[in-house]
Amino acid sequence: MTRTIKLAVVAGDGIGPEVVAEGLKVLDVALAGSDVRVERTPFDLGAARWHRTGETLTDEDLAAIREHDAILLGAIGDPTVPSGVLERGLLLKLRFALDHYVNLRPSRVYPGVPTPLADPGDVDFVVVREGTEGPYVGNGGAIRVGTPHEVANEVSVNTAFGVERVVRDAFARAQARPRKKLTLVHKHNVLVHAGHLWRRTVEAVGAEFPDVAVDYLHVDAATIFLVTDPARFDVIVTDNLFGDILTDLAAAISGGIGLAASGNINPDRTTPSMFEPVHGSAPDIAGQGKADPTATVLSVALMLEHLGLTDQARRISDAVAADIAERDGAARSTSAVGDALAARVAERVPA
Amino acid sequence: MTRTIKLAVVAGDGIGPEVVAEGLKVLDVALAGSDVRVERTPFDLGAARWHRTGETLTDEDLAAIREHDAILLGAIGDPTVPSGVLERGLLLKLRFALDHYVNLRPSRVYPGVPTPLADPGDVDFVVVREGTEGPYVGNGGAIRVGTPHEVANEVSVNTAFGVERVVRDAFARAQARPRKKLTLVHKHNVLVHAGHLWRRTVEAVGAEFPDVAVDYLHVDAATIFLVTDPARFDVIVTDNLFGDILTDLAAAISGGIGLAASGNINPDRTTPSMFEPVHGSAPDIAGQGKADPTATVLSVALMLEHLGLTDQARRISDAVAADIAERDGAARSTSAVGDALAARVAERVPA
Ligand SMILES: CC(C)[C@H](C(=O)O)[C@@H](O)C(=O)O
Ligand SMILES: CC(C)[C@H](C(=O)O)[C@@H](O)C(=O)O
User: Oxidoreductase among the record's keywords (chains A, B) (predicted)?
Assistant: First the structure.
């Protein structure tokens, strides 16, 4: 019996299409010879569409995307579009509309990977970033704009419902990992209302996971440990904005954003989850075949894992680890990296 | 003619009193033989007072502190006090009531200093963190607390008045530095209202400083550069929360929070400015003579600079640089470090 995965492909802007092409190449190889087929639908979303039509994501686009099992996204954003238009109107709209409340971002220092740290230690943690609340809700506004009396506010909205579900997901992930450790990162000494909600929720949900050790760090202190002792972390759970900041830093210390994968996941599986590299559209190197597609390839692995195709996911991440171990710093084109990874995955396909 | 500086001393909690004692020791030596006298008033503020009286900072305390020329603060915070009580009720209350809108935090990698980075490069930048607005205003609240329907909000408030004055201060500082470069850090693609106010303000004020080069980074990208290329920064201007996060990270890469000094400055000089190490009260090592007082000593140097005593300030920072260059990693007690720094400052006192 053949299983068909309906995949919505949002290649996006800048280097997005280049890295997505390699992600799909590796995906095809990983599934070759299996009973799983992928049916891809490309979605023309991003800067070009906006310039042409003024549209970011229409109701029709969203309805069509909902008919899929997963989304692979390259990168969104372009300096020719006013800041925020594509981020709020497309990328965040997808995350919010599809209720991607778990933004999953693993960090691992692969043997041989270049890192700015003198001695990173054995780094292997995952950030569970809340994806549908916090300062990202778009609940801001301004009065007297452009005058000396302007006031611009941004509201971080946090609900028991929203915090509890992501915290429970993070505990479950921690419980399934060998070290079973969860660190809440917030700033409850300043953001007392939101912070105390997070804190109480971790305490309450933690009672259901007695075998998971719980730790707390203020966000400022967490950045210190991410550079002085990143190996201490196992699962980090945090809000949308702190998660944004911490995961870029985490990427920087573990091989750079060229390697950082992410999943925007709806664990309830009522909507397609979305997989994307953490990096942006990098307009400065777009179209030059210089982008590293590894983060997208690892995002494909996260997608396969989410879809229950654990073996195929593992083959991809093993291929990446093997490739990284042999990298010598010489520049390779985007497609050369994709080819190399595809070849390694092919080697690993069981006969 | 003798000049008298009225100094309010808030030693605070944990290691606060220990490091403040060394800061004052070095201050005395730096001013010895000059025509500047320091008249100190200790203020009993912090956890012990709160436990005894339930008070954090009374109107009388504040009125008395206002009568001073400057404040030296050790550290505030204690795990026996509910989170937020002393931070909001004392530390942030001082910063807000005294309108410390420039939170100045220099970062320098002194030769010989241990850093977690393999190759930090020539790091010498200063973060100008806004100190009286943003998510720190305490404009949050929650409903249905403790129920499954709780909603907890935190409001970031940003005004043209507040943003413009700190941006102007940052530009002036950039102009006075050899590299003349200013980097705005924000997240204007998500926090569009606040972000665009900051952005427009930097553009407008920048027109008055045509010789200062201006750059922009999203806060997540800024954390990447702080570990991959911190030498690129000269002056960073940013909001209260981003500044909190970036300065802890900056401290971590440039020798640790044992060295990070800060000034909470009111450039209009209508109130006393406050100088404090970036580190916290570190209850785990309090009372053991293990805390490094260098950050407090460097905060004293910032204070002297603010008070126009530039030569004395320089003697202290030179003494710190010389001491760091000869540190061999052997543990020294808090007072031993203070003594060593005081001795070096004494050597430098002009005959
Ligand atoms: C592009 C931007 C809106 C986005 C975010 O802030 O979430 C990005 O930084 C990310 O981390 O995926
Ligand atoms: C103690 C806390 C309220 C404070 C802050 O967040 O500003 C501290 O982290 C700092 O950076 O001075």
Answer: yes
